[in-house]
Amino acid sequence: MTAGFLDLRSEIAALETRDLVDQAALLTGLPHELRQLAAPRLAMLIVELSDRAVRS
């Protein structure tokens, strides 16, 4: 794979993760400000779970 392809794949994965984080944050029912604070942790959890799923 070329570096450009890997960069594109990384960007797509980041967008998908960001979308999942937004959806998960909305499901919490928290106010907007708290959702923004929770978003980085939610993103880390989603990436960790995705990595585990790929490994198993």
Q: What does this protein look like?
A:
- With 56 residues, the chain is mostly helical.
- It has one domain.
- The chain has 2 helices and no strands.
- The chain has helices at residues 3-28, 32-55.
- α1 crosses α2 (32-55).
Compact description:
The chain has 56 residues and is mainly alpha-helical.
Keywords:
56 residues, 89% helix
Largest sheet: none
CA distance, first residue to last residue: 24 Å
Structural class: mainly alpha
Oligomer: single chain
- In sequence order, what are the helices and strands, one letter per element? HH
State the helical fraction.
Answer: over 70%
Topology:
Layout lengths: L2 H26 L3 H24 L1
Helix pairs in contact: 1-2
